[in-house]
Design brief:
Layout: E1 2-5, H1 8-21, E2 27-33, E3 36-42, E4 48-55, E5 61-63, E6 72-76, H2 77-84, E7 92-96, E8 103-109, E9 118-123, E10 141-146, H3 147-157, E11 163-168, E12 172-179, E13 182-189, E14 195-198, E15 208-213, H4 214-220, E16 229-234, E17 240-245, E18 251-256
Antiparallel strand pairs: 1-5, 1-7, 2-3, 2-6, 3-4, 4-18, 7-8, 8-9, 10-14, 10-16, 11-12, 11-15, 12-13, 16-17, 17-18
Helix pairs in contact: 1-2
Amino acid sequence: MKVIISDNRKFEIFVDIFKHAKDVNEIFNIHMSNDGMFMQGMDQSHILVMEFKLTKDWFEEFEFNQENDTVIYGINASNVFKFLNTKQDNQKMILTCPPGGDKLLFEFKGEKAKEYNKKFNMALIELDDNLITIPDSEDDVEFIIEHSNFACSIDQLALFGETLEIAIDNDNIIMSSSGMDGDMEINIKTDDVEEFSADECDEDEVLLSQSYAIKYIKIMCNFNKVSKMLYIKLSADKPICSRYELENDSYVRLYLAPKINDDNE
């Protein structure tokens, strides 16, 4: 197995993925195939799922032999980020593992003075492999919004409470939170987002109304260097999905289960 990233922008994305993956979980399985690299993991509470797919065409070079190379690589995301964060500008990253190897080799190589070549060997770890199949489907509401605007709104709402309430109708995306110190509401007109798609509802009704833990929504918004646009998908009584689109059909996406309101309590 061998992959190479020499483009600085793509390497910045690669680093950002592992920087914030560790906020979801420390350990993951990376799945390699002839199509590319895939990683999925769940937080300790089992309510937040994070995954990414980098197709082989996303990398400058991608070599994988399905018959001989190891398919699953158990890694510690914090250690990967620590290694990646030592690369200097203009160096390229070379990630390799020989067939049957028990370590990943990270190499940073450059041709400029004072950019020292580096090597890191990281021991692989054995993890249970419990992939969750998440099919792409049409949701009740889908919209695209600038990541910075959405993330800033979530940060502000987090100042007032631990729960994010979202109510959406034909014309508005209303996000609110409340706590001991007060409450806050942010009204985003559907005409103000990049794209908005949903079935229409009656004027005095909402398309959906759900609640989510803000601390996990904040994690979903952390991947600011991956893409400027954030794709949001919601359906009644289903997890909210945030998706970051990349080149060559690659992506980072996260799913968060909604809070359950028990009317009997």
